[in-house]
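Model it.
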Amino acid sequence: MKRSILNLGKALNKAEQKEINGGKHESCLTHVDCPAGQGCCPELELCFRDDYPRCNLI
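Modeled.
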């Protein structure tokens, strides 16, 4: 089971890691509050790229 958990997903490069872990995210309530190319993740009330997989951006 441990191996199956460790093999989930793909390895992220440094830029992707920074965007998820180390980059600053703007707080938001709607997409209008986010910079261009980003959308509001309502569950987290933070701006992310439109293709961020953990949020269903509408």
